[in-house]
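PROTOCOL LOG
Step 1. Enter all chains and additional molecules of the complex.
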Amino acid sequence: MPLVNGKYRANNKDPRVPANEVPAEVRAKNFEPVDTGYTTEDALEEANRCLDCKKPMCVKGCPVGIDIPTFIRQIREEDFAGGLATIRESNMLPSVCGRVCPQENQCEGNCILNRTGNDPIAIGQLERFLGDMTESVGATPVCKPANGKKVAVVGSGPSGIACAGALAREGFDVTVYEAFQTGGGVLTYGIPEFRLPKAIVKREIDGLKDLGVKFEYDAVGPPLRRRRVLQRHGLRRHVHGCGRRPAQVLEHPRREPSRRLLRQRVPHPREPHEGHGLPRL
Ligand code: SF4
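Step 2. Run joint prediction.
Step 3. Record the structure below.
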């Protein structure tokens, strides 16, 4: 840690630590992730650039309000379990958000270093670095005592699993009902492997299972039989997070009009053969 007269002094004039990438000639021949993340040395060097602002603009840019200066400080102090716990107070999906959030428009876009002509802190890479340490540091969030109330979450996409994690931490007995054969929704079926590996999504879901969240796959068919699910399981509350099924399409003169495409019904994966059109991942 850079100390001057016993006080922390940021190396904010240093350039941002670049992401490690697989060489083009290697990645041209596979679908593996392109960005391999930060090493511990990279993370410490990048964390040393943070000014630890008293009024952190980065937090204002974060949709879930993660305490960014605190987790960066904890990285600097090599308290990785503490840093992960800080993120998980606001966000149960650090490995996912560190990879796919548009940080350039959110936390990093608001970082004060942009105003001084320096590179913003690589907050996404640091969040991902901590998220990927989940297994080695073993930071399972603390949950409140069980309150005996059951909640159903319909859909295991980002909103569903984020909601399930928040409720589990508050002591609710949460069951997630998913129409597909695998959890993750758009994280699994919509983002390619080189951008967000399926193993990462699975690990985040396994983290929720460690909190006591139950997952039922192939459980909800179209139309969602909400009342039936509630009655069958004696559930008191119901959260609907099934996302937006029809795809958004690019406008292009040689494409069909988007309005016509959007009107088309997108088939459920179990149709038309009841034979599970999508492979188990
Ligand atoms: S605004 Fe930038 S420099 Fe300030 S605390 Fe946030 S990440 Fe660090």
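Step 4. Note key features.
The first strand starts at residue 3 and ends at 4.
Confidence is low (pLDDT under 50) at residues 260-266, 270-281.
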